[in-house]
Specification:
The protein is an alpha/beta fold and 468 residues long. The chain has 8 helices and 42 strands. The strands form 7 sheets. It has a 12-stranded mixed sheet with strand order 12-15-18-21-24-27-30-33-36-39-41-42, covered by helices on one side. Helix 2 links the parallel strand 4 and strand 5. The N and C termini lie far apart (64 Å). The structure holds uridine-diphosphate-N-acetylglucosamine (UD1) and calcium ion. Uridine-diphosphate-N-acetylglucosamine binds next to strand 1, helix 3 and strand 10.
């Protein structure tokens, strides 16, 4: 909405993280902390976002990059009020409400930003601030109220006496300000004993000047949390993962054990999919409806078709069609495309390999840089020797080809449609359509007509997960 803007503070060093990575770039459920804040603000309809950067500015700027978000540098970092003062300079002159958010408080939902905006406007207040009552208030500024319950000040932990430290109501660091009042008063914030300008001092300035400050209490304290160290990071991760699992379950996904299931925020899952325990779904993964993923599956940046099962296997940056069975113990490395109805593994490794509909690689095999047609049977132990020590080469296998057990395919090599290789063949030259080759190096022994190899005595064929 016009007239609303946000200043996001992300210039601090984050010393307590003890990390070379800037604190606000530490990932949470697959996205940098800061991106969660920006996404919630955008969801709350706050289009103009200014991120104040400083420490490791280049890295943070690169991560924010583009869109409606701009960055401004605060150098040196002289405290949260100083950061807001710098951010304010970039806001449109027509801005009426300014949300200030902390780059290290990534769980604040859009609804809470909206509530602060309406509380500030409705209460005709110069500040609406978010308060919470965490189980452990240490590290936060405390809200100090008078006997009548009216807010008097926020006292930072470093400046608090024993009585103030006892108070359980804390400042989340998330606010909505009246833009005009903020512009007029931000310069009045004094230097604290620590040498910083505390944004929290604006509360006393407002109250002593007779202006209203309203407090919005966070419905759930954990969503207001600020992350200062690695254990805070882990706590936030746990909370966020719980929220993500809840959302999928509400949408009709079965998650057998949410506590052992790790789903990144951008993952999409279709209805009636079933996610078994010890499963990790990361990045931009999309799971089709009625798929069964896990137990013990790890899927990264991949698309898995409807009704496909992935059992104790790893799939990276690949596209898997519908009704495919993968695993157990297979690894699809980046760049694979698996057609519908295929069966992959026990113990199969694939890399940059395209496999047509209905093909089977049932047992331990490695195919790299290969194009495999439809209804192909790859016998146990088949290997593409795709690397000659200097370069990678491709292997092509035509539709309905039958590759016998323990075949070695020395790339570049092409097996024609319907061709066959005998057990233990070492194929060094192209095999024409329909031909059979055997031996080492493999030689032709003739041509034969045959049906699609969906069941074959050598391999057992038949049902997945139960065949010998
Ligand atoms: C701040 C609040 C505290 C509140 C807590 C909530 C102040 C003085 N204190 O304390 O009341 O309970 O957040 O989590 O505001 N930053 C800058 N520039 C600076 C200093 C900090 O951009 O000069 C940024 C940091 O990168 C961080 C955020 O502001 O994202 C908060 O800074 P931090 O040092 O973590 O403040 P807290 O001590 O947690
Ligand atoms: Ca903090």
């Amino acid at each position: 909405m016009i007239g609303r803007a946000a200043v996001v503070l992300a210039a601090g060093q984050g010393t307590r993280m003890r990390s070379r990575l800037p604190k606000v770039l530490h990932p949470l459920a697959g996205r940098p902390m800061l991106q969660h804040v920006l996404a919630s603000l955008a969801e709350a309809g706050i289009e103009q976002q200014v991120v104040v950067v400083g420490h490791d500015a280049e890295q943070v700027e690169a991560a924010v990059g583009g869109g409606a978000t701009t960055t401004v540098r605060q150098e040196p970092q002289k405290g949260t009020a100083d950061a807001v003062r710098i951010g304010l300079e970039l806001l449109d002159s027509g801005t009426q409400q300014v949300v200030v958010a902390m780059g290290d408080a990534p769980l604040v939902p859009a609804a809470v930003f909206e509530e602060l905006l309406s509380a500030q406007a409705a209460g005709d207040a110069c500040i609406a601030l978010l308060a919470s009552r965490p189980s452990d208030p240490s590290g936060y500024g405390r809200l100090v109220r008078d006997a009548g319950g009216s807010l008097q000040a926020i006292v930072e932990e470093d400046d608090a006496d024993a009585a103030v430290l006892e108070l359980g109501e804390v400042n989340a660091g998330t606010y909505c300000f009246d833009a005009g009042w903020l512009r007029a008063n931000i310069g009045a914030v004094p230097v604290s004993p620590s040498g910083e300008h505390y944004l929290t001092d604006l509360v006393e300035i407002a109250i002593s000047g007779g202006s209203r400050v309203v407090v919005v209490s966070s419905p759930r304290a954990e969503l207001a949390m600020g992350i200062n160290d690695r254990s805070g990071l882990a706590a936030a991760e746990r909370i966020l993962r719980g929220e993500i699992a809840e959302r999928h379950m509400r949408n009709g996904v079965t998650i057998v054990d949410p506590s052992s299931t790790f789903i990144d925020i951008d993952v999409q899952i279709g209805e009636d999919a079933r996610i078994e325990p010890w499963t990790v779904l990361s990045g931009a993964t999309r799971i089709g409806s009625d798929a069964v993923i896990g137990p013990q599956a790890q899927i990264l940046d991949s698309k898995i078709g409807a009704r496909t099962t992935v059992w104790s296997s790893v799939v990276e940056s690949s596209v898997v069609g519908e009704d495919v069975e993968i695993g157990p113990y297979s690894h699809l490395r980046p760049g694979c495309e698996i057609g519908p109805g295929c069966r992959i593994g026990n113990f199969t490794e694939l890399k940059k390999t395209r496999i047509g509909a209905g093909s089977q690689i049932h047992h331990f095999s490695y195919l790299g840089d290969a194009d495999v047609g439809e209804a192909v049977n790859i016998g146990a132990g088949t290997i593409t020797a795709n690397f000659d020590g200097t370069a990678k080469h491709r292997t092509t296998i035509g539709d309905r080809a039958f590759i016998g057990v323990d075949t070695m395919l020395r790339a570049p090599v092409s097996i024609g449609p319907g061709a066959r290789t005998g057990a233990g063949a070492v194929v060094t030259r192209d095999v024409p359509a329909g031909e059979t080759v055997v031996g080492m190096p493999a030689r032709r022994i003739g041509t034969r007509q045959r049906k699609a190899p969906d069941r074959n005595p050598e391999q057992g064929g038949g049902k997945p997960r139960s065949d010998a």
